Amino acid sequence: MPDWKAAATEAEAITRAWPASEPGGAVLLFDRDGIRGEFAGGLASLAHGIAFSAATPTRYASLTKHVFCAFALHHGLDLAAPLGTLLPDLPDALAGVPAWRALGMTGGLPDLMQSYGLCGVPYTTALDNAALDAFTATLPGLDTRPGTEVSYSNTGYRLVEQAMARHGQVFGVWVEGALNAALGTGFRFPAAWDRPLPGLADGYWRSAPQQEWHAGSYGMALSASGALTGSARDLATWLRALLRGDGPAGDVLARLAAPAPLADGRPTGYGLGLALAEIGGRRLIGHGGSLPGHKNHFLLDPESGAGVILLSNREETEPMLPALRVMAALLGLELPPRAPELLPEGLFIEAAGPAWIEHRAGALSFLGATEALYAGAQPGEAISLSPYLPIRLRRDGEGIAGEIGHAPRHFHPVRPASLSSGMAGTWRATAQHAEMEITIARDGSATCAMGAGPLHRRAELTALDATRALLPIGAAPWPSRACLWLEAPGVLRVVTNRSRVLTFRPV
C-alpha cells in the first residue's frame, strides 16, 4: 500500500526549502481516485508577491510531449509514416525518419534550438514558425542513424504537430477546447512566450556571484514539444484519467509508455512522450520539463495507480531527483547512492570524432549535456537515472568505457595539446548564414569569434588535441560547450549533444 504520510513528509520538506520571498513551486500527490496531498512554497511572481500554489498556472515545458502523443494516437496518426509523407517539403535526410522514431527520441533529428545556437543565435531571439521552417530546410543530415542511439530532440514534435495541423487536426485547438471541456481543466497552449496568460507564473534564474533573480525568457515559437501551460491540479486531473484509462484521449497510457526499441531490438527508456525510470526494481513512468526558469517533473506508478507532480519556477531546481525521492518514500523504495568515486575525473575524448566527456564530483558532461551519476547494479558501474541521456560507464585503466545513449563509447584522457594551424582562419556555414573566425596565438592559445553587431563575441578555446577544441556557447542560465572538430582539411564540424550536423568551410 502507498505510504501517503511518508510521501507527504518528503513533499513538505521540498516545498519548505523554497523561501517565502523567492520563487518556489508545488508538489502534488494523487492516485486514480483523487488528490492525496498538496504542498507549495515560494512565489509565482516576485514582482507582484503572488504565492505559488497547486492552482497556479505555469509552463509545463516538455511535460507537453505525452499529451501531444495521446492526441496524435487519438486522432489516428500513422506512427510508421515517414516524416516526408506527412510534410512533403522536408529535407531528404529528415524525410525518411518514421514518425514514431521522431517522437521516441531515436530518430537522430538535430534539435533546432541547439542548431541555431551553434550559429551564434541566442535562445532568447524571437523566431517565428516561418523562420524556424526556413532554418529546418537547411539542415544537412541527421545526428545519428535512426534506431542507433537515444538522442533527445524537440524537432520531431514540432514537425509532427505541423503535419497534423495541415490535415485540420490542430493540437492547440483540441487542448483549449475538447480536452478542457471533457476534464474541466484550464490548459492553455500559447504559440509564443510573450502571449499574456492570466495568472501564469513567471520563471526565474539566479545570477552569480550577485545571486540576483532574473525573469526567464525564450524566443523560439512554442510547439507541441513544450508549449502547454496549466496548474498542478490540472495536470493531476489529466494524469488520473490516463491511469484510469477513461480520459478524452482514450486508453493510451500503455502505448505511450511502451519503450521504443533500437534497430537491433534493444529496448530504450523512452516511449511516446513518456520516459521510464526504475528504482528498487519498480518501474515508474514520467517525464521532465525545462524552459528558462521553469523546472518540472511527474512520475506515475501504474501498479498502485499513484503519482507525484513537481512544478517549480526556479531554474536551480533539479526536478527529477526530488520527484524520485517522494515516490521512493511513497512506495518504500531506496534510491541508488551517488557515485562520485567510480570514474576518474577530468576531460576525456574518443580516439576519433567529436565525442568528449568531462567528469567532476559525480557529474558527467557528454557533448555539453550533464547528468548526475549513481552506482549501478554491477560493481564499478556508474549510471545516470535519466532516460533522456542514459549513461552506463566504468573505469577502463586511465580511461572510461561503456554506453551513452545506448551507443558504445570509449574515452581516453585529454593530454596537453596545441591546435593545428589548419583550424585557424575564417569559416562559414553558407546554408545557415553563419560564420566564425578562429585565431591561434604564438603561445598556442586560441580563440573563436562569432556573431554580428552587438552579438559579436570572442571566446577562448580549450584544446582537446590538435584537431578538436571546446567552445563556450550559450548564456545564463543555459551556458554550454560545443566541440569544434576539424573532420578533414577544410571541413570544420561544430557539435553538441543535440546537434551534430553543422559543417563550416574556409572562406
UniProtKB/TrEMBL annotation:
Domain of life: Bacteria
Boundaries of every Beta-lactamase-related domain copy: 22-320
Pfam families in alphabetical order: Beta-lactamase
Protein name per the record: Beta-lactamase family protein
Organism name: Falsiroseomonas frigidaquae
Organism ancestry: Bacteria, Pseudomonadati, Pseudomonadota, Alphaproteobacteria, Acetobacterales
